[in-house]
Amino acid sequence: MRQRKVKNEEEKIARYNHWIVEEPTDRKGRWSEAFDEACDGAALCSSTAGAGASMGEREKDAATPELYLEIGCGKGKFITEMARRHPDRRYVAVEGAGTVVLRALEKAAGVRATILEDDDVLADGDDDGRDERYEHVGRDERAEELIVGEPLNNIRFITDYVQTLGDIFEKGEIRGIYLNFSDPWPKERHAKRRLTHRKYLTEYRKILSPGSILEFKSDNDDLFQFSAQEFYNFGLEILELTDDLHGVLTGPLVPTVVTDQQGTPVKLPGPGEGAALSAQVTTEYEDRFTEAGKNVHYCRVRF
Ligand SMILES: C[S@@+](CC[C@H](N)C(=O)[O-])C[C@H]1O[C@@H](n2cnc3c(N)ncnc32)[C@H](O)[C@@H]1O
Fold first, then answer.
1. In sequence order, which ranges of the chain are alpha helices (DSSP H)?
2. SS3 for 69?
3. 20-31 in b/e burial notation, b at 16+ Cβ within 10 A?
4. Fewer CB within 10 Å: N-end or C-end of the chain?
5. Predicted structure pTM score
6. How far apart, in whole angstroms, are the C-alpha atoms of residue 76 and residue 62?
7. 200-225, pLDDT tens digit by residue?
8. Which residues are catalytic?
């Protein structure tokens, strides 16, 4: 769907430079440095500078925190909530669409929204159909930001579309990957673009430590069916799977079926602790589908 365009998008994104990793390939094998760097003095991150420095001090003698990756974070609700819930972990969020990554950056910075001037919205048609027109909650409607929460210093962003990952992360540098409501690419000729295609699974294997986890949520029956079969064919262990994470579906369910090489359906596990936790931390898309009574598929697999 058409995204709302934000005037001076690049300029607005640049305000959150503290959270953006400009040259991710330079960080390969050294991602902890991206989190230990102190704030460059920009107003928005000044309150995280101390947090960053003290974290760096604290961690000198401690083990490096585990690093988790979300590809296609959209407006960032899921990954910023994960970062908030797990201050002992670190997160890298990847998002190629500037309009939405701006929202994610605002969440990481603890800013509710950039308050825009009237002509700032150039094109309407927000992806989720809601009018998220910026809330003029401040006294001064032309104020640039409204600080509403503590900035997060355990999250960084790659503001680009990624295709390869082995050039960005070292083998074993990532402990877990989240894919939430990934673009379905329904046409067969576009199958390789699906983030659960074996081409991407090969990339994930290059950067994950053995035994690491991938969690995948989707509203799309066909993409989920494709993905579960792809996981199985790739030799990943399906640890948990549910076709209705939130138990909201009233109509008939299309159950996911995975078959072995002989075409015989394999027994799939049900939901467990992972599903229960995942149901608590939702994405913008997930909220929208759940409110509409559409089931959300979830699975957790081990590499
Ligand atoms: C359907 S949206 C879902 C957003 C969010 N995860 C949610 O559930 O609300 C998929 C997002 O993934 C992003 N995306 C798709 N492929 C990507 C890639 N290879 N690298 C970075 N972002 C990607 C798109 O720009 C889009 O914002």
1. 9-14, 31-36, 46-59, 77-85, 98-109, 198-207, 221-233, 273-280, 284-291
2. strand
3. bbeebeebbeeb
4. N
5. 0.86
6. 29
7. 999 999 999 999 999 999 999 999 99
8. 183
